Amino acid sequence: QIQLEESGGDSVQVGGSLRLSCVASGDIPGAFFWGWIRQGPGKERERIAATFFGVGGNSVTYADSVKGRFTISTDSAKHILYLQMDSLKAEDTGTYYCAADTDYATYLTKPSFWGRGTQVTVSS
User: Which of 37, 77, 106, 109 has the greatest number of C-beta atoms within 10 Å?
Assistant: First the structure.
């Protein structure tokens, strides 16, 4: 079992920045996929950024909606996943979840491990 806990959500103005953090704890495997999934009001969940934790884990993927504005990074030693969000837009408003799975296909469809989420509100 991987426990995930997000933090860093806040209310900011359009054009502002935030950095979210996700700390993994518990029985952490040597390799797994993790990333950020968000859900805006009245919208479906959207996978926005993901990366691989483990040996050779440098590849990242981004949704087109955040590419060039958001950056995912990790502190592998501390098992922390970050999401730097710049040039925030009103449509970035939502609950941001950290999710993980040891299998990539499962991560893409129904990750086994989720945090409780952190709220991001972007207003003009």
Answer: 37
